[in-house]
Amino acid sequence: MAMTKSERLMNLLIMLLVARRHLDKDHIRSQLYAGSGDEAFEKMFERDKDELRQLGVPIEMASQDAFFDDEQGYRIHRRAFELPDISLEADEAAVLGLAARVWQHAGLAGATSDAIVKLKAAGVDVDRSALDLVEPQLTAEEPSFDAFWSAAQRRTPVEFDYRRSGSSQVTRRHLQPWRVAWSSGRWYVLGLDTGRGEPRLFRLSRVQGDVRTSGEPGSYELPDDVDFHAMTRQLAPTAPASEPATVLVRRDTSYGLRRQAGAVEEDVTGPDRRTTWDRLRLDGLSLETLADDVLTFGADVYAESPPALRDLVVDRMRRVLT
User: Fold this and answer.
1) Helix (H/G/I), strand (E/B), else coil: 149
2) DSSP code per residue over 57-81
3) What is the pTM of this model?
């Protein structure tokens, strides 16, 4: 199977970052652009370098030989790619401390380690510790993440049970996954819902049980006339304006809700006295979405008002227990 553009860019980044010497064009071509003609290789390689540079990746070009400057090589120096020391607030540090599960998933680790294997096989000395610089720090706690990610990469149809927001009914869905997307703080899968014959976006946290394959890998093609980013934004649920809500949160917890608060009242009376509580005022949020968020933080959050918010939280808890 041909390497996708995103895989090629990632492998090029890793290859130039971990190599302890400058790599010449012929070596890079043999590892990442095998099978391409001279003109096609030159165009792809120049385009890939430009895209990495536009992303802020400093690619250095230098002579391979101190006595001959006609053969140029390429490398990314770690010191030029590293971020400076960053000072974080307590809540920002807590958010970053949750993370890095995406990098640990076998599918992603395997896809990007090809560059390391090829360099070692070619006898190139590599600095594996440089990989620390490109590890994505993003959480993926949903159990269905791996299955959807793999299905989207392999173009494999899947079926799964799904519960819509505010509903206790679970329905079976059949999907040709196109991409897994992060939107408004949540993971979604975008694809063609074959049962309904149209593109749909499904929130991974609402998938019930296992995701099962229902076809062979490569059994469908991705549409070439679709802007997946634009479609994700279009299909992603928006939070309709609603009446203001207030929730009580334990001190030094629930930073996701705190960031959305229009006002914070500290040291208020809470439902228990084990810790100090703060009151958050949340404006313009959907009560359905807010109820889901309240349950996410468990005993650290108490839905105070309006009564409809408390009713939604209680109803969801009852459905979980029954």
Assistant:
1) helix
2) ---EEEESSSS--SSEEEE--HHHH
3) 0.41
CA distance 297 to 2: 43
Contacts of 49 (CB under 8 A, 6+ apart): 59, 74
Cis status of the peptide bond prior to 306, with omega within 30 of 0? yes
Residue 266: in which H helix or E strand, if any?
strand 263-268
CA distance 287 to 247: 12
Closest among 126, 133, 125, 118 to 18, alpha carbons compared: 126
Find where tokens 């992060």 sit: 182
Strand partners, 224: none
**Residue 194 pLDDT exceeds 60:** yes
Question: 2-11, 151-160, 162-171, 254-263: which has the highest mean pLDDT?
Answer: 151-160
- pLDDT surpassing 80 at residue 85: no
Q: How far is CA 40 from the centre of its chain?
A: 31
